[in-house]
Specification:
By secondary structure, this protein is α/β, with parallel strands linked by helices. The chain contains 10 helices and 9 strands. Helix 5 links the parallel strand 5 and strand 6. The longest helix is centred in the N-terminal third of the chain and has 25 residues. The radius of gyration is 20 Å and the shape is globular. The N and C termini lie far apart (about 55 Å). Its EC number is 3.2.1.14. It is an enzyme of class 3 (hydrolase). Belongs to the glycosyl hydrolase 18 family. InterPro entries: Cts1-like, GH, Glyco_hydro18_cat, Glyco_hydro_18_chit_AS, Glycosyl_Hydrlase18_Chitinase. This is chitinase.
């Protein structure tokens, strides 16, 4: 009797595993950072490309501790306000793409919070000037952004948890304020650890680059896989802990020249080796890319493998791109040994 039931049991287990993978892929997508190079195209072009699910505008570089907030969008609009971007943001949102404002970044800005009260004041500023509140001086015009991204790589490591809680409190049943974080891959992240542990972030896209101990290097996935597994079980990211359903995404470079210390993963290596591993967790969120300026073809090459069923993406485009560009030497589809 037991022998006859074994094939049925194995079939059920297989179906459960497939169902889990499908649920994981349903929540996955591609995020892109935009705003740090005037030659990367506008938001109309970026979103009409239809390979992205999230666009992160980078960045509000300086704020807090009584400083005048400084929006740095490189060559796109200097100085701010950049109110003409309002219609472009709304166009992206009309395609189902969520648009975030990134805080901090790796440039020369100074994001510093001096106290919990200061964090709450900055949350109010973000709500009124970029989210669903009201202000006469909205730098990006009337467009209401979907959320705020924490990319804190300088300044102080204090009170980011207070800011995350304060922003999350602006969510309502009618309009959610989405929160994302982009920590470096070494654990714990110096700047964002306490904030991530709150569990209020919807998306955590970890930067698996510029950090050799936890990034991919020529032909070797061990450091990357070990770090991914640590992040998948980390408080605030593990789905058994957070206050919201946090998705974990793989932060990658869109081209080798995007960072001098690299961590760049060739598209074919990502497709064949990396994605089958990272997709196994239930809260797999997809891929985040730095940045739009460097993403000539990378997102198109990987799109259908990150999530083959995203409303903004045309499968035919992907097939054509693969047919014509899969052998492109610029993207080093496989490692050059």
């Amino acid at each position: 009797m037991a022998a006859r039931l074994l094939p049925l049991f194995l079939a059920i287990i297989s179906l459960l595993m497939i169902s889990s993978l499908i649920r994981s892929l349903e929540g996955s997508g591609i995020g892109i950072y935009w705003g740090q190079n005037g030659d990367e195209g506008d938001l109309y072009e970026t979103c009409n490309r239809r390979t992205y699910d999230y666009v992160i505008i980078a960045s509000l570089a300086t704020f807090g501790s009584g400083q005048t907030p400084v929006l740095n969008l490189a060559g796109h609009c200097i100085p701010s306000p950049c109110t003409f971007l309002s219609s472009q943001i709304q166009f992206c949102q009309s395609l189902g793409i969520k648009v975030f404002l990134s805080l901090g970044g790796g440039g020369s800005g100074r994001p510093v919070l001096s106290s919990p009260d200061d964090a709450r004041e900055i949350a109010a500023h973000l709500w009124n000037n970029f989210l669903g509140g009201q202000s006469y001086s909205r730098p990006l015009g009337d467009a209401i952004l979907d959320g705020i991204d924490f990319d804190i790589e300088s300044g102080s490591n204090l009170y980011w948890d207070d800011l995350a809680w304060a922003l999350s409190n602006y969510s309502t049943p009618e309009r959610k304020v989405y929160l994302s974080a982009a920590p470096q891959c070494p654990l714990p992240d110096y700047y964002l650890d306490r904030a991530i542990r709150t569990g209020v972030f919807d998306y955590v896209w970890v930067q698996f680059y510029k950090n050799p101990p936890c990034q991919y290097s020529l032909g070797d996935t061990n450091n990357l896989f070990n770090s991914w597994s640590e992040w998948a079980s980390y408080p605030g990211v593990n789905t058994s802990f957070p206050a919201v359903n946090t998705s974990l995404s793989l932060g990658l470079l869109a081209a080798p020249e995007a960072a001098p210390s690299s961590g760049y993963i060739p598209p074919q290596v990502l497709i064949d080796q990396v994605l089958p591993f990272v997709e196994q967790i239930s809260n797999y969120g997809g891929v985040m890319l730095w940045s739009k300026y460097y993403d000539t073809y990378y997102s198109e090459l990987i799109r259908s493998y990150v999530n083959p069923d995203v409303l903004a993406y045309d499968k035919k485009v992907h097939d054509e791109v693969l047919c014509h560009r899969l052998s492109s030497s610029r993207y080093l589809l496989r490692d050059e040994m």
